[in-house]
């Protein structure tokens, strides 16, 4: 499994236990465990205590965890509540305990995730799954410009909007080159060229 050596084990957990649980989760979801490792690497650098920070926020991650994206896949507070927990509780879990909530988050999508990009879209913007590359990310409550402003890394052409293609391109670029073949299929690589 890729990136396993970069997992930040905590609360007495071992890499072997983390790997065992990751393989079980991935098998249950019908996905490549390397896809999930890459999504968690992108979101949290495989650190279960990773907490998003915005200008003006407390420097203390434990305090920010109450209102910011937290954990291995950067659970939003509303998402955590929908899973029957809170971001504060997630912050205080071991990485292996938190994997149970990662599984619960992705479980409704089981059988629908066909690629690394699909898995990332489930995490970042589920409405984009299966959409063409020119699909603009927006909702009735979030404008395209607001989504782009909050996620400037993905706005490749700096037009104030994010497209599915821009997200895929940035996600592809974020994969360490030594492991691209393990994460992205030949077909996906061709569509990003």
Largest sheet, in brief, is: none
Helix content: 40-55%
Shape: globular
Number of strands: 0
Q: What's the rounded overall pLDDT mean? A: 92
Count of separate structural domains: 2
Topology:
Layout lengths: L14 H15 L3 H12 L16 H4 L12 H6 L4 H5 L3 H12 L9 H9 L19 H7 L13 H11 L5 H4 L2 H7 L1
Looking at this protein, list some descriptive labels.
2 domains, mainly alpha, 193 residues
Compact description:
With 193 residues, the protein is mainly α. The protein contains eleven helices and no strands.
Task: Provide structural commentary.
With 193 residues, this protein is an all-alpha fold. The protein folds into two domains: 1-112, no CATH class; 114-193, no CATH class. It has helices spanning 15-29, 33-44, 61-64, 77-82, 87-91, 95-106, 116-124, 144-150, 164-174, 180-183, 186-192. The protein is globular, with a radius of gyration of 16 Å. The two termini are 26 Å apart. The model has no long low-confidence stretch (mean pLDDT 92).
């Amino acid at each position: 499994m890729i990136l396993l050596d970069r997992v930040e084990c905590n609360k007495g957990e071992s890499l072997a236990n983390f790997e065992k649980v990751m393989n079980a989760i991935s098998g249950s979801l019908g996905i490549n465990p390397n896809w999930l490792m890459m999504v968690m690497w992108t979101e949290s650098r495989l650190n279960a205590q990773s907490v998003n920070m915005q200008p003006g926020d407390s420097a203390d991650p434990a305090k920010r965890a109450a209102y910011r994206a937290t954990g291995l896949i950067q659970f939003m507070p509303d998402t955590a509540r929908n899973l029957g927990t809170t971001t504060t509780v997630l912050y205080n879990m071991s990485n292996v305990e938190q994997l149970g909530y990662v599984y619960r988050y992705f479980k409704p999508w089981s059988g629908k995730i066909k690629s690394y990009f699909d898995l990332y879209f489930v995490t970042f913007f589920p409405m984009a799954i299966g959409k063409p590359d020119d699909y603009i990310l927006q909702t009735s409550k979030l404008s395209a410009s607001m989504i782009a402003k909050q996620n400037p890394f993905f706005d490749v052409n700096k037009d104030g909007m994010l497209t599915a293609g821009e997200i895929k391109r940035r996600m592809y670029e974020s994969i360490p080159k030594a492991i691209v073949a393990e994460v992205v299929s030949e077909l996906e690589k061709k569509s990003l060229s």
